[in-house]
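Quick one: C-alpha cells for this chain, please?
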Amino acid sequence: MNRILFGALCVLLLFAGALQATSLTQEKEKLRENAFQSMAAELGLRQSDTASRDLPGWSKPEKVVVWAIPGWDVEALRATVPGVDVVSISSREEAKEAARGAQAIIGVCNRDVLEAGDGIHWVQVYSSGVERCIAVPEVTAESTLLTNGQKLASPALAEHAIALMMSLVRGVDLYHGNQLNGQWKPDVGMGRGDFMELDGRTVLVVGLGGIGTQVARKAHGLGMRVIATRGSRREGPEYVEYVGLADEVNALASQADVVINTVPLTDRTRGMFDAAFFKAMKPTAYFISVGRGRSTVTEDLVEALNTGELRGAGLDVTDPEPLPEGHVLWSTPRVIITPHTGGRSDRSRDRLFLLVQENLRRYAAGEPLYSVVDIERGY
C-alpha cells in the first residue's frame, strides 16, 4: 500500500510540476505578446491584410534560418515555434549552407544565399531600407514575402535629426572646431541674429512615414510649426499643420526654416533634392537628411551651400556612401556628417527581436505578418 501511495504522490508531483511549467510558459508568452503589441501601437507598425497561409507558396515551415544579432536569445526564438528547426548563423557562408531546405530566412537578403535556398518563401530583413534586397530577382518573384524593420529605428532617427538641426542653428559645429584648436572664441562668424531660436519656426518634414511622424512630433514639442509631404495621401497627425503631396515639396520648401528629409529611396525620390529644390529654400534655412543619400544630388547641395542658397546641412546619409576620403563634402563649411548611424540606440536591438519573434510565430501559424513590404512601391 505504501508503494502505491508513494507512486501516486510522485505522479501528482510530476503533474503539478508540469502544470506549473505550463503556467510559467503561458505567462512568459503573454508578457512577450503584450510587449510586442505595446511597441506596435507606439510605433504604428502595420499588420498585413492577408494571412500567410493564403499566399501562394506558403506551407508550414520545417526550417528557418536566422542571422542572430549578438545578445539575442535564440532559444527563445526556438521556443516560439516548437517543431521548427531554427538554425542560427553568423556568416554569409553559413547562410548559404543553412539555406538549403529552408522555407524562410531572417536577417539575410543576398542573391547567392537565396539561390542556395531554392524554396525560400519569406525573407525578413532588419533594416527599413530594402532597395538592395528588392534588386534580387528571387525576392521580386511573385511568391516571395518580404518584411522589414520599418519604423523600429524611428525614435532614434528622429532624435538624431533634431540633434543635427539644433547643433546647426546654435553654431555648435563652429564652436567644436574652435574646441579642437583649443580656442575660446565667442565670434565664429555668426552674428547674434544668425543664432536661430526654433520656437515658432517652420519645419518641413519630407516623407511623413514612420521616421517623419516621429520627427514631426518632436519638432512640434519644441514649439515649431510643422508642415509635411507624403507620397500618396494628405493624412497626418493633428500636430502637423499641413500635409502636402510630393509635387508640392518645392513650394512648401520656400516656407521652411528647416527641411528634414526622411524619405525612402524609390524611383520617385531618387535625386528629388536638386538645384531647383535648394533654390526654392530660404537662404537662411537648414537642410537635414536622415532618409536616403541618393535622394539628394550631392553636387547641387554643395553648390547651394557654397553660394549661400542655404545656411547649413546635417547629413546622416550621403551619396556616395561611404563618403570617400577627400570628398568635397568633408571640407564644405557648415556641414555636419555622421556615417549613417542615426538609427543606433540602446533599444533598437530589443525592438527588432520582438518583431522577429512575433513574425516568426505568425509565419509558422499562417497568420498575417507585420511590416510587409510593397515591392512595387519599394517600401
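The chain has two domains: 52-152+347-365, 154-337.
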